[in-house]
Amino acid sequence: MIRVVIDANQFVSALLKPVSNPAEVIRMAREGKIQLITSSDIIEEISAVLLYPKIMKRHRRTPEQIEVFLKKLTKAAVITHSGLRLDVIKDDASDNKYLECAVEGGAHYIISGDKHLTDLKSFRGIKIIEPAHFLKNIVVE
Q1: Domain annotation for the chain: domains and CATH numbers
Q2: Average pLDDT, the chain
Q3: Which residues in 73-93 are b (16+ Cβ under 10 Å) and which e?
Q4: Which pTM does this prediction carry?
Q5: Could you please report the per-residue DSSP string of 7-33?
Q6: Cα–Cα distance between 132 and 137 in angstroms, integer?
Q7: pLDDT attached to residue 140
Q8: Cα of 111 vs its chain's centroid, Å
């Protein structure tokens, strides 16, 4: 099965726009067509961003609904232990958590729209691509 790490901003995009490429990738993970790999650091970032007041105004979900969403997310995912520490992305060191998670979880892809990640194109054999490219070029059984 294809194993993917999904950037926190893709989850936000999916909630804000339910008919979108990020939403489709997350739907595939929920349905078990791809295996979501994540870490507690990534889940914390997703939670923090979804709870920003300006983002909450847009997605109109309560903190309780966000908590339910995150619980469902963690049930559908393989959670890495965040023991690995990398210092690859210098311009935004917080993005290194995606590389760490992908390496620890044996991911095939990191799905992101963040240029700090996508400019790398790949890391240790893990492809880093945008959701549209993933959906267009990946065949899932």
Answers
A1: 3-137 (3.40.50.1010)
A2: 93
A3: beeebbbbeeeeeeeebeeee
A4: 0.93
A5: -HHHHHHHHH-SSSHHHHHHHHHHTTS
A6: 9
A7: 63
A8: 6
- Please answer whether residues 118 and 128 qualify as being in contact, where contact means their C-beta atoms are separated by less than 8 angstroms: yes
Identify the sign of the CA torsion 21, 115, 98, 66.
negative
Tell me the residue type at 134.
F
26-60 pLDDT, tens digit per residue, is 999 999 999 999 999 999 999 999 999 999 999 99
For residue 134, what pLDDT band results from cuts at 50, 70 and 90? very high
Q: Is 51 helix (H, G, I), strand (E, B) or coil?
A: coil
pLDDT of the residue at 81: 85
Residue with tokens 């059984």: 141
